[in-house]
Every structure is written in structure tokens, then in C-alpha cells.
């Protein structure tokens, strides 16, 4: 479900870039990257100004193309390189937030202040140190952690209490 916004962002940014290129607008890659980064702002601006930009460009176009540029399916070779580079950047910009969320997860880390508060409640009058994560199950979203207490190293897990993901549980193994 979290993947859907990234896919929508990718498709709309690539469409804006390709549409701007097909209509020979100035800086199609900038339009695409702008859409990928500031989707809520740039996409509506592009859609509102699209007809006007196309009309102005057609009036300006003398369709001057360099004889040195070889044609490809994307237009000239120089334009093709820019579009592919722009498309790669748009792909990265669209999926970076999703990848970051999958990699780090929203679950508090083992050494976070929230987990520290729960550990302090679970272990009253006990000195503990060095909470560290040694494993993270991305599918189940469970952090496996170690903790140093006076008498040695103890393992605990941090996982969500329910599907609402508002509260988490710390459990010693």
C-alpha cells in the first residue's frame, strides 16, 4: 500500500517529462524533475499552463535541428541522453522515500528515547547500557536488540502492539 504513492509520483513525473519533450517545450527534464520533487505544486502548474506553453512553443518553433545530432526514438541523441538521465533521477526521487521507510521502518530504534523509557519502567532500579540492534525483520517489523546489564548481555525485541502502529511493545527473550 505504501508503494502506491511512489508509483503515482513516478508515472506522473515521467508523463510530464515525456509530454513536455513531445510538445518540444523548453527544459522537459526540469519539468519532470520538478514534478518528482514538488509534485503537489509543479504538476498542477504544468497542467494549467500546458496549453499556453504548447501554443507559445509552436509559435516560436522554427524547428531548427542540428545536422550533427542523430535521431533516436526519443528525439536527438543529446535530448535522449538528457531524458534518460532525467528519468533515472525521477525514478530515484520517486522511490527514495519508500526505500527509506522500508529500510529504517517507523518502529522506534533500540537506542531511542521511547524505548529507553519503556526499559526504565521494565527494569526499575537497574543500570543498563548499550542498547543495540542486531537484527530487523522488515516483513514483521520487529527489532531484535541486545542490552548490557550488570550480570551480562540480555536480548529483547521491539514490535508494534497492534496494526494501528501507535504503541509498541518491548519484550525480553
What report would you give on this structure?
The structure is a single chain. The chain is α+β, with helices and mostly antiparallel strands and 173 residues long. It folds into 2 domains: 1-68, no CATH class; 113-172. Helix content is 52%, strand content 21%. The protein has helices at 3-22, 28-37, 39-60, 77-104, 113-122; strands at residues 71-72, 75-76, 128-137, 142-149, 152-160, 168-172. The strands form 2 sheets. A 4-stranded antiparallel beta sheet has the order 3-4-5-6, covered by helices on one side. A two-stranded antiparallel ribbon has the order 1-2. A hairpin with a 2-residue loop joins strand 1 (71-72) and strand 2. Helix 2 runs antiparallel to helix 3. The longest helix has 28 residues, at 77-104. The protein is rod-shaped. The model is unreliable at 65-70 (pLDDT under 50).
Could you give the order of strands across the largest sheet?
3-4-5-6
What portion of residues is helical? 40-55%
Structural class based on helices, strands and sheet pairing: alpha+beta
Q: Helix-strand pattern, N to C?
A: HHHEEHHEEEE
Radius of gyration: 26 Å
What distance lies between the first and last C-alpha atoms, to the nearest angstrom? 32 Å
Work out the strand percent: 15-25%
Q: What is the number of helices?
A: 5
Q: Would you count the extended β strands for me?
A: 6
Shape: rod-shaped
The major β-sheet equals: 4 strands, antiparallel
Average pLDDT figure: 82
Taking pLDDT < 50 over at least 5 consecutive residues as the criterion, the unreliable ranges are 65-70
How many separate domains make up the residues?
Answer: 2
Amino acid at each position: 500500500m505504501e508503494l502506491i504513492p511512489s508509483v503515482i509520483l513516478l508515472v506522473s513525473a515521467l508523463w510530464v517529462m515525456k509530454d513536455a519533450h513531445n510538445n518540444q517545450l523548453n527544459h522537459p527534464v526540469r519539468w519532470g524533475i520538478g514534478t518528482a520533487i514538488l509534485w503537489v505544486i509543479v504538476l498542477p502548474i504544468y497542467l494549467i499552463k500546458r496549453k499556453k506553453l504548447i501554443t507559445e512553443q509552436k509559435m516560436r518553433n522554427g524547428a531548427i535541428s542540428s545536422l550533427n545530432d542523430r535521431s533516436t526514438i526519443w528525439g536527438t541523441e543529446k535530448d535522449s541522453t538528457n531524458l534518460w538521465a532525467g528519468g533515472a533521477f525521477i525514478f530515484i526521487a520517486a522511490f527514495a522515500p519508500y526505500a527509506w521507510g522500508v529500510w529504517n521502518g517507523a518502529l522506534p530504534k533500540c537506542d531511542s528515547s521511547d524505548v529507553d523509557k519503556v526499559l526504565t519502567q521494565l527494569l526499575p532500579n537497574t543500570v543498563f547500557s548499550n542498547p543495540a540492534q542486531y537484527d530487523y525483520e522488515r516483513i514483521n517489523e520487529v527489532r531484535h536488540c541486545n542490552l548490557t546489564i550488570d550480570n551480562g548481555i540480555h536480548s529483547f525485541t521491539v514490535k508494534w502492539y497492534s496494526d494501528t502502529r501507535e504503541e509498541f511493545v518491548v519484550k525480553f527473550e
